[in-house]
Amino acid sequence: MIPRRFVSSLVLAAMLLCQGFAHAQSPADVALARDLFRDGAKLAQEGRWAEARERYTRSLALKRAPLTLYSLGVANREIGRLVDALESFRAFLVEADLQNAANKPYEQPARDAIAALERRVGRLDIHIAPAAPPALSVRVDGAEVPQAALGLPRIVDPGEHTIVVRAQGFREATTKAKVGEGEQSAVTVTLVPLVPKGPGPGPVKPPGGGTPPLPPERPVAPIFLLAGGAVAFASGLTVGLIGVQKASDAPVQDGPEAAQARRLALAGDIVGSAGILAAGAGLAMLLLGKPPDTPADPSDPPEVSVKPFVSPTGIGLVGRF
Questions:
Q1: Residue partners of 117: CB distance under 8 A and separation at least 6
Q2: Has residue 212 been placed in a domain?
Q3: Is 199 helix (H, G, I), strand (E, B) or coil?
Q4: Which of 182, 208, 212, 258 has the most Cβ atoms closer than 10 angstroms to its Cβ?
Q5: End-to-end CA distance of the chain
Q6: In-domain check, residue 24
């Protein structure tokens, strides 16, 4: 805490100094800067450092005076803005006429404050991966880091800091880093490439180009032939057995009952043979892997289609060969 006697002497010295440079700016601006400085000094005596800092900042914007810089440095230090305080004290030593009686009493306090603040401020060492991306932009706590300062440790106030990195072709990256008083912390920000938006992956093309093959279709025809052939064989076998049974039961071999039995036996043989033929054709198609429903080729053997039927007059087959 700055003694009140010290702050009062600072106010008087600043008033005397303002009278010396009033000719450099309009009288109205100088008068307002003087009033703001007085308000800031009064607030500082009351320990209201944030409000005092606001008055000093506005006074400095109207009229740049060395003692205003010094006072602003004290206010910044008291509220924890160590980096701003450090730069205010340094600016005071650069801009003040230290041979002037109004400035001389503050020279050594300013040097002592600089030495102490240099030990207290933190340093943040930011690394970007991948290194040197195009159109790189880095912000620390909302403040843009100049391109010339990238890759070098940066002084910061102790505490947590937010780092935002943007680069062409990469997603925006945000990370936080905590720096202790007098510490140097290194943080690496990893950028993730942007994924271009577009249609999903198309069908996989075979080596050498060309049209990708269509997925294989289910072999319907061979399965139908196998199933139909099995049914026809079973039907023929049943009809044949019935004919044999009737023939054995006929009273005479040349009678009508025997003739009907022979017809049933013959029909059973035909149907069973057709069933075996159809099942064999279906099995051959499955084994040879011939795709169904392909356009007919003149050199291909004819397709076989067999379908049994039963009518009141007898049993037969409908086929296409």
A1: 77, 82, 85, 86, 89
A2: no
A3: coil
A4: 258
A5: 113
A6: yes
